[in-house]
Amino acid sequence: MYNLVIFGPPGAGKGTQSEKIIAEFNLAHISTGDMFRMHISNDTEIGKKVKQILADGLLVPDSITIEMLEEEVTKNPDVKGFIFDGFPRTVNQAEALDTFLEGKGEKINLVLQLDVNQDVIKERIAERQKISGRADDDAEKLVKRIDEYFSKTIHVLPFYENQGKVIKVNGIGKIEDIYSDISSAIKESM
Ligand code: AMP
Q1: Could you read off the pLDDT of 39-53 as tens digits, one per residue?
Q2: pLDDT by residue (tens digit) across 83-117?
Q3: Pick the catalytic residue: 49, 134, 144, 168?
Q4: From the CA atom positions of the chain, what is the Rg in Å?
Q5: For a tag site, which of 17, 41, 107, 152 has the least CB within 10 Å?
């Protein structure tokens, strides 16, 4: 298996670039944000628990997130590998993912860090909200999500840097140019 984490703040382009990676490398996409939104729209038990948390722009507790993620991986035993988008978002999640994959004789092969600055994030999310209508894309909730990123999620980077797995890619510019760097980085790590 080849397993990849795509990492970056809200609005870094993780979803957009994930679609391109999937098309070229045939990996299974796991976006915990998409999964939570699906649970909310289907009004499942998980959906009921996380609805307000997402609306507030806060992180869902690790216990719920990790269990949901592991179930999704287990459901797809025959794929070539996974692209984890929006997960892990805490060091605890990263550790749990390592332990879980180790138990399957697997590992994270590469962490792609999309490098963007805060001005770009804010512009992109304002644009996205016009199309997606995502409640957590509004300016006030976005501030919360960026806070969560810089207080909790950023610490995931040194965790993977210590394992020598992080490659930083410039996330500003044309989608195609960014993707070209991503594609080369993946090929080199295979
Ligand atoms: P995203 O679509 O990745 O921006 O995620 C949307 C929202 O889902 C986040 O703001 C969190 O509330 C929640 N979420 C998604 N992934 C995680 C995660 N790995 N840990 C905790 N909360 C998450």
Answers
A1: 999 999 999 999 999
A2: 999 999 999 999 999 999 999 999 999 999 999 99
A3: 134
A4: 16
A5: 41
> What kind of fold does domain 2-189 have according to CATH?
Rossmann fold (3.40.50)
State phi, psi for 138 to the nearest 5 degrees: -70, 160
The Cα 153–Cα 9 span in angstroms is: 8
Distance CA 6, CA 27 (A): 12
Our measurement of the distance from residue 95's CA atom to the centroid of its chain's CA atoms, rounded to an integer in Å, reads 15
**Tokens standing for residue 88:** 């892990």
State the sign of the Cα–Cα–Cα–Cα dihedral 51, 56, 62, 68.
positive
Which residue lies with its CA nearest to atom 19 of ligand 1?
87
Each domain of the chain, given as residue ranges in start order, spans: 2-189
Sign of CA dihedral 182, 136, 87, 8: positive
Check: pTM over 0.90? Answer yes or no. yes
Per-residue tokens: 55: 């609306």
Residue of the nearest CA to atom 15 in ligand 1?
Answer: 33
- The alpha carbon of 57 and the centre of ligand 1 are apart by a number of angstroms equal to 8
Find out whether 97 and 108 touch, Cβ atoms under 8 Å: yes
Paired tokens of 81: 């590998």
Is 171 close to ligand 1, i.e. is its CB under 6 Å away?
Answer: no
C-alpha 20/C-alpha 65 separation (Å) is: 25
